[in-house]
Amino acid sequence: MKKSIAIFDTTLRDGTQGEGISLSAEDKFKIARRLDSLGVHYIEGGIPGSNSKDIEFFRRIKSYTWNARFVAFGSTRRKDSIADQDANLNRIIEAQVPAATLVGKAWDFHVHTALQTSLEENLAMIADSIAYLKQHQLEVMLDAEHFFDGFKHNSEYALQVLRTAANAGADWVVLCDTNGGTLPHEIHQIVSAAIEGTQVKIGIHTHNDCELAVANSLAAVQAGALQVQGTMNGYGERCGNANLCSIIPNLQLKLDYNCIADDQLQQLTSVARYVSEIANVNMPVNQPYVGNASFAHKGGIHVSAILKDSRTYEHIQPELVGNKQRVLVSELAGQSNVLSKAQQLGYELDAGKPATKAIIERIKQLEHEGYQFEGADASLELMLRQAISNEQEPFQFESFKILVEKSKNRPVVSEAIVKINIDNESIYMAAEGNGPVNALDNALRKALSRHYPGIEDMHLTDYKVRVLDESDTTAAKVRVLIESTDFEHTWSTVGVSQNVIEASWEALVDSIRYALYGKEKKLQTNERKESLGIVNH
Ligand SMILES: CC(=O)SCCNC(=O)CCNC(=O)[C@H](O)C(C)(C)COP(=O)(O)OP(=O)(O)OC[C@H]1O[C@@H](n2cnc3c(N)ncnc32)[C@H](O)[C@@H]1OP(=O)(O)O
Ligand SMILES: CC(=O)C(=O)O
């Protein structure tokens, strides 16, 4: 039978100790709902002795039924005081959760330097605090802070801390690599020694300062730890905590431990991305298992092989963690990339035919000039479509002009005048905007609106500019990537020029062409809007 490992998520506590991460009580609640459905066993929600937001969070969770056990965090009682008069301990009890984590010192240096007390008093602080929470029927875990550094300097005292906690009734002792400086082989040795030297269940809590938090957690489990503490996407103090998005699949898919159910594991990618959205932290595309590029194939040799059998370049099936395979088209593409991409987009291309070769050559040429299609699917689709079906353009460009006016006591205003031709009719249109690109976008859409009424539904959501040849500032090219949406779909387009306005125009026109080509999608959108009772004015 597979051995079970308890997954303890501390995104809402240690995760929020990461720089730039701040979650409201509502954010925490939303994340907790997703963690609960993912199947983690413990959710450490915050520190009720620290702030009223966390007190509010623990109050809010009472209105729902949860599968996970909620945990409130705090430190052992203050030195030279009494546990039942300790404000932090009492806030934990008042949070009315089933479990508590107490952080206690396990390194003699810290006891002397940070607490400035005696080794005996620290043991008494640990024992009194645990006993007090046990009297209130809480499941209690001692986070043995700096256990590994403590063990290296004074192993007898570090083990005494664990025994003291166990004798006071702790249900778990969690060995913390607080400074994140321990190596996997040391973790294995020290966890083994702790298991031999105590009679209580052991957990592991690691930090990523040597980029070893995941490896260290796995080493601890292999040495016998039964609980792993970590955070979603590895958020946490300094370089972060152990990343549960890697630990869970590694334990479950590689090492044959049982953490969460298989269908819950399939939620991993969406939960990781949801948490990054709520935390407002961009997720690295190359984040293992759950990143957008974790199963993205770019090199022609790779794509040719995965189309034969995905195991050639994928260590697991992406669907096991809810991710998916992607094929990227770029200058490194061979015909396999282009054929596969065309097929995904619904076009038939014949391998080896001159037309296919011409498309590949064109993509490589454009990428050489600075275009980047892997982030601009819509421009790529338009190019393929043009090459395959030679459809008529929805409008012809004639000219545009932009005026930028700054007058005293008025913000800068941009005005664009656009001239296009539709079915031999010349259309001029002017519009203002808060910047030149916004003005161009407004003028172009106004010019198109009589012929293409659905165009009001779309708008730009993101605009990125990148200088391509920074060494040659006068002749440098810029690449503009635009993301647009029409209520239901999102698409990205690209433009390149030595002039940022021209590059923006190119990406903008592609964005609008794509929206106009997608009339079928637009009809569906309108039906959906009608069904939702939304009316265009
Ligand atoms: C390894 C970890 O991640 S531990 C968790 C770290 N997280 C946080 O600190 C976030 C939440 N913290 C807070 O909101 C505040 O620090 C509070 C409310 C807990 C305490 O605030 P303050 O009373 O103003 O104390 P302050 O933060 O300045 O210093 C911490 C105090 O706790 C003491 N302390 C530290 N660890 C422990 C411990 N395990 N047991 C008891 N006391 C401890 C320190 O010695 C220091 O006491 P001192 O003021 O007598 O020097
Ligand atoms: C308790 C904790 O977060 C640590 O020691 O890292």
From TrEMBL:
Gene Ontology annotations of biological process type: isoleucine biosynthetic process; L-leucine biosynthetic process
Record's keyword terms, sorted: Amino-acid biosynthesis, Branched-chain amino acid biosynthesis, Isoleucine biosynthesis, Transferase
Pathway: Amino-acid biosynthesis; L-isoleucine biosynthesis; 2-oxobutanoate from pyruvate: step 1/3
GO molecular function: (R)-citramalate synthase activity; 2-isopropylmalate synthase activity
Xref: Pfam families: HCS_D2 (PF22617), HMGL-like (PF00682), LeuA_dimer (PF08502)
Alphabetical list of InterPro entries matching this protein: 2-isopropylmalate_synth_dimer, AIPM/Hcit_synth_CS, Aldolase_TIM, Citramal_synthase, LeuA/HCS_post-cat, LeuA_allosteric_dom_sf, PYR_CT
EC numbers: 2.3.3.21
CDD domains found in the cross-reference section: DRE_TIM_LeuA3
Enzyme class: transferase
Domain (Pyruvate carboxyltransferase) ranges: 5-266
The reaction(s) this protein catalyses: pyruvate + acetyl-CoA + H2O = (3R)-citramalate + CoA + H(+)
PROSITE patterns: AIPM_HOMOCIT_SYNTH_1, PYR_CT
SUPFAM superfamilies: 2-isopropylmalate synthase LeuA, allosteric (dimerisation) domain, Aldolase
PANTHER family in the record: (R)-CITRAMALATE SYNTHASE, ALPHA-IPM SYNTHASE/HOMOCITRATE SYNTHASE
Family to which the UniProt record says this protein belongs: Belongs to the alpha-IPM synthase/homocitrate synthase family.
Name under which the protein is recorded: Citramalate synthase
Species assigned in the record: Paenibacillus agilis
